[in-house]
Write the structure tokens for this entry.
Amino acid sequence: MSPVAALCLKEDNAAMATQPIADNLVSLEEYLSTCYEPDCEYDDGLIVERNVGEYDHSFLQTILGSMFTVNIDIWGVYGLTEQRIRIAPRKYRIPDVCVLRLDAPVDDILNLPPLIAIEILSPEDRWARVLIKASEYRDFGVENVWVIDPRRRKVFAATAGELREIEDGIFEVKGTPIRVQAGELFAKLDRMRARSRGV
């Protein structure tokens, strides 16, 4: 098992009711031929569960995926949610949203780095795992790795070896017209929550 998988396993065992079990390693062939609900990641034989399904996470994932697709002609990109990416021969990750250029090759499982990989944190997510995933995306060649924390209303971008907070809350992609304001995303989330309470 890789050191990354061991660290995640240790953290998950301490924090999650349902955790990966290192004694039950799964072959790559079995992973690729099995349907998981929700889909799981794969790390050198280890099935890694993802924290999904809570309202804030789901709403922001939908808004972001839609935003990139609605701006397809202006930004020259489109968004995919929960798309498997093969970042190493025996490692598959599933960002909450990934963004592809229009001329990017289309495969059932992506084998090339997307332009952007976005992770939206759930309350159960552990910061150590987020840092590891961000680093893995960068090592794979993803130029823009964004992390959104809806609970704390903070956003981060991955740089070499770290996540730095974006103080003004504006995500941009150098050399493109792409501009995403986290404040607007959070405002939409607040409006939907208020509507559900009849405010």
